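Still learning. Any example?
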Amino acid sequence: MQKVLIVFAIALVGLAACSKKEPVRRDTPVKGNAAYYWRTTLRLDSTERAFIEKYNIRRLYTRYFDVVIGMQDAPQPNATITFDADLRLPDSLEVVPTVFITENCLRAYEADSMPQRIVRRILQMNETNDIPGVREIQIDCDYTDRSRETFYRLLERMRELCGEHGLALSATIRLHQLQMPAPPVDYGVLMLYNTGAPERFAERNPILDMQDVAPYVKYLADYDLPLGAAYPVFLWQRVVHGVTISHEADRQTILDVKEAVEQSRPDLSQLILTYHLSTQNIERYTPEDYETIYKH
């Protein structure tokens, strides 16, 4: 039986009274191999465990829940992950709780409420489900220039709260966000996937295409934040007039993009992630492909 998760609206009494710890600052940038985990239940089969060991995966950036607009136009959690009752994580693997915030939630943002509720809920999920050794939280949001200032205020408050619990704070960075000032976090992960518009699928691959990446490479050298890079290993499908159309980033495209961004920003070779961990995605590429993608 899956363990019961604490509801998002739990009282926050006592958070402000917690004794402060010195904020943790991760290596800048964090180094090593990592992967995203974007499924609804956290469990690892034998293929996934073997992959983690073979490619020395040290961090699993795990989507804990989304924050969306709910009843009465108030932010609320959605699609919360559950944890397999028999889950046994490798001792060498660090879970990084990751939360996706929809941009429209920022319009309903209140100065302290949302950051406190997010941090408290993550801490409770860790405790309830015996997730050890958590040292960091990551926030994922497709913010725009219009919502950037509000989002950055949210991150500033979250960073304070994370510091009180000895946690670092990171954020995903989309290509178009490289044109903006960097967010107030310890480091970012550059999302080198979903780079194109899905509605233009007939023109080029919406998962990853050099034509979509190239215009933003020039911003990397001066982007004022330590960065890692995440590359796609998933299959994307849509049905058009009853016909299923599939897209997948081929090995050469991934490597061409990797070479281009690392030439402009060498530290992108130090923290490398793939999106996302699953047996299906592991089997979609060869071991040689993964060895090349994870090459530092």
